Every structure is written in structure tokens, then in C-alpha cells.
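Q: I have 628 residues here and want to know how they pack in 3D. Can you give me a structure?
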Amino acid sequence: MTDRRASLHSAAQVWAHPSPPAPRAGVAGRVALRASEQPRALAICGGGESLDYQNLVAQSLALAGRLRNAGVREQDLVALCLPRSVDLVVGALGILASGAAYVALDPSQPDARLQYMLENSGASILVAHQAVGRRLRADHVLAPRVPPGDAGNEEESAAQGPAAPASLAYVVYTSGSTGNPKGVLVEQDGLLNLADWHARAFSQSVTDRSTLLMNPGFDVSANEIWPTLLSGGSLHVADEAIKNDPPRLRDWLVAEAITQGFVAAPLAEELIALDWPRSTALRYLHTGGDVLHHRPRPGLPFALVNNYGLCEVTVTACSGIVEAPCEGQPDLPPIGRAIDNSYLRVIDEGGQPVADGVAGELLVCGACVARGYLNLPEQTAQRFITDPLDPSVRAFRTGDRARVGADGSVEFINRADEQVQVRGHRVEPGEIVHALNDYPQLRNSVVVPAQGPGGVRLCAFVIGEPGERIDITALRAHASSRLPDHMLPSLIVQVDDLPTTAHGKVDKSALVELAVSFARSRRNPHRLALVEPRNEQERVLADLVAELLWLPEVSVDENFFLLGGHSLLGAQLIGRISEIFEVEMTMLALFDNPTVESMAIEVERLIIEQIDGMPPEALLSDAEAREQ
């Protein structure tokens, strides 16, 4: 080994923080151990109900017994399609307790996509509510819970989950470039390593109250559930109406005395811009899933933790606390250092490590690396490799470009391929193209990401058969039936042909410029004839909406959501409204009042409501108060 490689190898090992080997018990066994130690401690609450550890384990074992009686054996895959809820956690734990692994499905996704995942996984049993089972036309559906009198003694025969470190924990699907999502096989040893790192790095313990905000098809859901339960803490499920509403989410975090929580980077940036009471119990606000553009201001009563990871590295590969702004810092906060029993390398195109400060592809090595892709041996062989300096260690090629800073922390640069991050999710534009191209009369399409003030927007350019005009509204409905919300293009434009570079390739830079130009023009079918603001409130709101949507101006009767707005952009809009008008508009109110005209009426109503609720002395000017 050369001196250069030896120094690189040593530096890489410093990035990892070794911890003692995890106990041999599987995830379900360790939760059961917690239940024996603290049976009456709160495990989870939400939706008007709660379970302590004793009842959580009892109900999960009852499900495990029913699964075993239905023929489930160790390492089988069982589909789990439930919303964020007590049932979701009972279902996941019950599947693990049966010795199987769960396939995480989000019931809010389109039926066609869920049916593909169900078939692709080979899961013969679906744990879900009966209505979802009917939607997906599943043959064998088990409810996560049954009335106490119907459970029988099934829990007595249930396993406590396999102890073998290489056993599967779950399968989660991520966007695939070939037109369909691909399943990632995540092992229990990686999940246990993640939980043990959380316990050490953030002092996660029985006193912690953690959030369950992420939808179950998003891998971060596992990062919320299992570190909390394995440390003996409690999970708290926020209502759907508040989880993307920054002021209301802040108030809920404070009222519920939450100590740790995770939100996607765009929402985290809104939360750290809000005022917080000094008495909040929140210790750590974790974020990730997208590039973090802002640092927390000094004086926030909690630490902001920036996490980097993918499904393929068991959610989190590296992490770091983001410091408040100061001179000499890089523009973007770093993504931190490797978690326990893992390390990072930056490699060149030949797969060899590069020196610190040199950009290259980020390689994640060690305990956090997942098993591979489900039923995709070629893609697994391409991405799941071994450390070039230590073939005994498994590694994953992330496709992300990064470099190591002078302090040893890792700085994210961009993607080395076409994958993009949208609202916290990694998206392959190729999967969107396949969904669009299935539409009749469509000959070809290209999807490009455009970066703007509100984050990344997906823009689709479609070419029809000669002489055919494509019904864009029908095409959007077609895409909605196949793709989740975060993968839907915010703009679809029909063109006769695509611009090309001098080398004959599609000129995607020109398409981005065309997308921005089209979105701003009145040729956009969602644009209306301009009606200018008629008062100061409408003018301010129109400017805010135009800025977020990259438009030169908006008509007061144009719909924020039809122009490309979505829930995270809505969260940013609500935050700005709160800051300027000193009122707290809810996300539900924004959905009900999506035009500048109706927003202004709602803001005026909130101001009047606020004034009516003030005591008379609070309405006096300083001079009037002195006269009294």
C-alpha cells in the first residue's frame, strides 16, 4: 500500500466512531425486553389512542401468531400498508416478531404503484385495513389488530424475531430509472446499528418523546420508529393537518413536550425561522432528504442536526450538528461525519480514493450498508461493492459528488447522475418519463429539474404523434394514477421537437430556460388574464406568491396550487405571511383560500379576530396609555 493510500485509509477510519457490538437479539426481541423492563411506560400515542410497552408487545405478538398460523416463516416478506398510526407500529413490530420482514407501503400512493410493489415483492400476505386490501385487490389481508377476545393464545407461539445479524428487517421502495420503483433490502444489523448510534450520539433514552411524522413508504419512518422504541422512549403521531404547517407544527412540538423529531430540509428551514419559546423540551431537530441551504440563527433552544443518507445505507450514513452562521464557514452546511461502525470515502471515476478537498463520488462503507436491491442482481452488483482498500468491508456507491473538508466533515456537491431530490425524496426522472410515455398519443417525453426559490420543480416536455394535440389535463390525471405526489411534474409542456446540443444530445439547460419562460407566460393553461392587486394586502401577497412560483406577477384570482404550488411551498408561504402580517394562517386555510384575493380576505379575518381577542388596554397607543 502506498503512503498516500495508507494515509487515506487511516483518515477514513477516524471518520467512523466504533461502538460495542449490538446485542444478538433481533429488533422485536429488544423491544420485548424493553416491555419487560418498563411495561407501563408509554410506547406510542396518536389518533386519540395510546399503547404502553406491555400492550404494544402483546398486540404485536397476537399479530405475529396470526401470521405464523397463516403460513409465514422466517425471512418471508409481508406487505404492510397502513398510515402513520398506532396500527402501523403494531403491524411492523408484529411482522418482525413473526420472523418475517415487512414491505413498507404508503396507502396514500396511487393504487397502480402499490400493486406493482405488492407483486414485485412476492408478499403473499398484506397487513392493512380491509378497505386498502379491496383497493389493491389483495388475496390475503390481515388487520393489524383484532378485538382482545378474538386474539386467542396466538401470541404464545409467536417468535421474537430472528437473532441472526444478516436477517432482513424491511424492504422499502425507491424511485427506479427503468420505469418502476425498486425495493431495497435492509437488514436487522444495520437497523440495530442505527438505533444504537442514535442512543449514543443524541443520548436517546426512556425519557425521550419522539415524532412520527414521516409517511411509512419513506425510509426515514424507520429512523423515527426503531431508535425510539429500542431506547424505551415514546412515539407521538402528529395529525395530518399540522405536519406540514410550520407554526402549528411548532406549537404541537412544544405542547407535546417533544424532545427529538425529524422533518425534511425545506420544512426544517421554515421551522428554524420561527420564534420558539425558551421553555421548549425539544433538544434535537433532525433534518435531511434534501440540501439544507440555511443555518440556524443563534439562540434557538434546540440543536439542528443535518443527516445524509439513502434507503441503501439504512436511512443515515453521516450526520452533524449545524452551527449558527459565522465568518469562514462554507455556504452550505456540511452533511457531517459517518455514523458508528461505518465510514466514508470519496473516490474518482476509477473507483480509487482521492485526497481530502478533492471532489469525487461518495462511497459509504460498513455496517449501515443494506443487502442490495430486490430481484435486481445486476443493479446490486453495480452499486453494492466492497471498499477498494479493504475488500472485507461492504460499500455502496451513492452517485453523489462530495469532498472532505479540512475538519474531516463531508460537503455535498451534487449528483453524478440524473437523480434529483424533490421534497425530501430521491427521484429518478426516468421513472416519470416511463409513466408519461404510457399515455396514448404521446410519442416521447423528457423530464428536467429546475432549481428556484421554492426548491426543485420537475418540468416535463412531451411530444405527441404528428398533428395530435395532447390533453394536458388528462395526461396529468394519467400520471397521478401512477406516480406519488412528489414525482408529478409541476409543469407539462407540449413541444414539436426537443432542443439539442452540438453533439446531438437533448439540451436540458435550454429546456430549463424554456420551462421557466413558459411557466411565466400566459400560454400556461393555468394562467388567467391579469387582475392586479387592489389593496396593500393583495399587493404583498401577490409578490410573495410570485416569488415562490418564479413568476413575474400573479393575478389575484389565480390558484396557487394550479400554478405549481405544493404543501412544502405552501409551508414557506404561510411562514412569510406569519412574519409579515403577524397572524398564523393554517395549511388548511391556505387550501381553502388558494388565490391572492381569498388569502387577503383570510388575513384580514385573522387580524380582526386577533384584535377582538385583545384586552382594551392592549389596543391603546403609548400616549393614550400615559394619559390614563
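Q: Anything worth noting?
A: Residues 26-164 form a domain with the Rossmann fold fold (CATH 3.40.50.980). The two ends are 85 Å apart (CA to CA).
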